[in-house]
From TrEMBL:
GO terms for molecular function: ATP binding; pyruvate dehydrogenase (acetyl-transferring) kinase activity. It catalyses: L-seryl-[pyruvate dehydrogenase E1 alpha subunit] + ATP = O-phospho-L-seryl-[pyruvate dehydrogenase E1 alpha subunit] + ADP + H(+). Belongs to the PDK/BCKDK protein kinase family. The gene is 11406905. It comes from the Eukaryota. It comes from Medicago truncatula (Barrel medic). It holds the Pfam family BCDHK_Adom3. One of its GO terms (cellular component) is mitochondrial matrix. This is Protein-serine/threonine kinase. Residues 236-355 form the Histidine kinase domain.
C-alpha cells in the first residue's frame, strides 16, 4: 500500500528526471575551500554559492533517492524507508522546480527553499534506523546476514552523503548571518577549542544520563583549553556526545547497585604534529570480544531499542541514552568526513575511544 501511494504521489516524469540526475557526478568540496570561499560572504559569492548548490544538491539528493529504490531484502519497501524516499523526492522536486538563480532576490528565495529541505530531513537517521528495525523483525536472520554487507555499505554511503548535504546547506545559510561570532565562517570555526566543545558535549550527555538514571558519573577532561584548530564544532560535539553518552550508560548501569562510587570517565585532548586526538576512556566493563566486530554496524546495539513503530519521527527529535544502533557508525562517518577516523579499543573493565 505504501509503495503504491508513493508511485501515485510522484509523477512518472519526476521519477525519470531523478534517475537522470542520479547518474551525474557530484563535486567534492573541502573544508579549506569552504573556509576560504566563505571568508568573504559578498553578494557575488553568495550568488555563486547558490548557483552551485542549485545543481549540486539536485545531484546528491537524486543519487540517494535512486539508491533507496534498490536495497536488498525488500528494505526499500519498509514503511519508514518509503517515508525517507518521499522526503528525498520532495526535496528534489523543490530544487528542480526553482528556476535559474540570476540575482540576489533569487538567491534569497532559494536559500529559504534549502533551509526548509534541511528541516524536512532532520529525522532521516532515526527513520532509516526504524526501517532497518522493521527489516530485522520481518526477515529471516540468515537472509539478513547474507545481504548485510550490501546494506551496511549502502547505509555508510547514504549517511555520509547526508552529512555532506547538510554541511553544504548549513554553510550557505550561515554565511547570511549579519553578525557572525569572531573566527566563525559559516559552520566552520577557524579557532575551535576541542576542550571547550568537549565540555559542552559532556554537559549535554550528563544531563541526558541524569534524566534517565537520576545521576551521572563525573567526567574529567585533560588538555590545553587554549589550543585551537579549524573544524566544525557541531560535528565534534556530536562525536564526543555520542561517545560520552555510551560511556555514561555503561558506567552507570555497572555501578547502579554497587556501594562503590562510579569511577570517572576520562577525556584527553592531545595536539600532535599531524593530528588532533581525543581519547575517551571509561570503566564500564568494556565490550565483549564477540561484540567488537559488530559495533560499527547498523544492525547492532547493546541497549534496548527505543524506536517506536508508531512514533511520528518526522515531527521532533527524541534523544535517548542508547539503542538506535547507529551512534558509533554515524560518529565514525563524521570523523571521516574531513579525513579523520574513530577507533574503539576494549579491554576488561575498560573501553577506550579515539577520534
Amino acid at each position: 500500500m505504501a509503495a503504491k501511494k508513493a508511485i501515485e504521489t510522484f509523477s512518472k516524469s519526476l521519477i525519470e528526471e531523478v534517475h537522470k540526475w542520479g547518474c551525474f557526478k557530484q563535486t567534492g568540496v573541502s573544508l579549506r575551500y569552504m573556509m576560504d570561499f566563505g571568508s568573504k560572504p559578498t553578494s557575488k559569492n553568495l550568488l555563486i554559492s547558490a548557483q552551485f548548490l542549485h545543481k549540486e544538491l539536485a545531484i546528491r539528493i537524486a543519487r540517494r533517492a535512486v539508491e533507496l529504490e534498490r536495497l536488498p531484502c525488500d528494505l526499500s519497501q519498509k514503511p519508514a524507508v518509503l517515508k525517507v524516499r518521499d522526503w528525498y523526492l520532495d526535496s528534489f522536486r523543490d530544487i528542480r522546480s526553482f528556476s535559474e538563480i540570476k540575482n540576489m532576490n533569487d538567491e534569497k528565495e532559494f536559500t529559504e527553499v534549502i533551509k526548509a529541505i534541511k528541516v524536512r530531513h532532520n529525522n532521516v537517521v532515526p527513520t532509516m534506523a526504524l526501517g532497518v528495525q522493521q527489516l530485522k523483525k520481518d526477515v529471516d536472520p540468515k537472509i539478513i546476514n547474507q545481504d548485510f554487507v550490501e546494506i551496511h555499505q549502502f547505509l555508510d554511503r547514504f549517511y555520509m552523503s547526508r552529512i555532506g548535504i547538510r554541511m553544504l546547506i548549513g554553510q550557505h545559510v550561515e554565511l547570511h548571518s549579519p553578525n557572525p561570532p569572531p573566527h566563525v565562517v559559516g559552520y566552520i570555526h577557524t579557532r575551535m577549542s576541542p576542550v571547550e566543545v568537549a565540555r559542552n558535549a559532556v554537559d549535554d550527555a550528563r544531563s541526558i544520563c541524569s534524566r534517565q538514571y537520576g545521576s551521572a558519573p563525573d567526567v574529567h577532561i585533560y588538555g590545553d583549553p587554549d589550543f585551537t584548530f579549524p573544524y566544525v564544532p557541531a560535528h565534534l560535539h556530536l562525536m564526543v556526545f555520542e561517545l560520552v553518552k555510551n560511556s555514561l550508560r555503561a558506567v552507570e548501569e555497572r555501578y547502579m547497585n554497587s556501594d562503590k562510587d562510579p569511577p570517572p570517565i576520562r577525556i584527553i585532548v592531545a595536539d600532535g604534529l599531524e593530528d588532533v586526538t581525543i581519547k575517551i576512556s571509561d570503566e564500564g566493563g568494556g565490550i565483549p570480544r564477540s561484540g567488537l566486530r559488530k559495533i560499527f554496524t547498523y544492525l547492532y546495539s547493546t541497549a534496548r531499542n527505543p524506536l517506536d513503530e508508531h512514533a511520528d519521527l518526522g515531527v521532533g527529535d527524541n534523544v535517548t541514552m542508547a539503542g538506535y544502533g547507529y551512534g558509533l557508525p554515524i560518529s565514525r562517518l563524521y570523523a571521516r568526513y574531513f579525513g579523520g577516523d574513530l577507533q574503539i579499543i576494549s579491554m576488561e573493565n575498560y573501553a577506550i575511544a579515539y577520534t
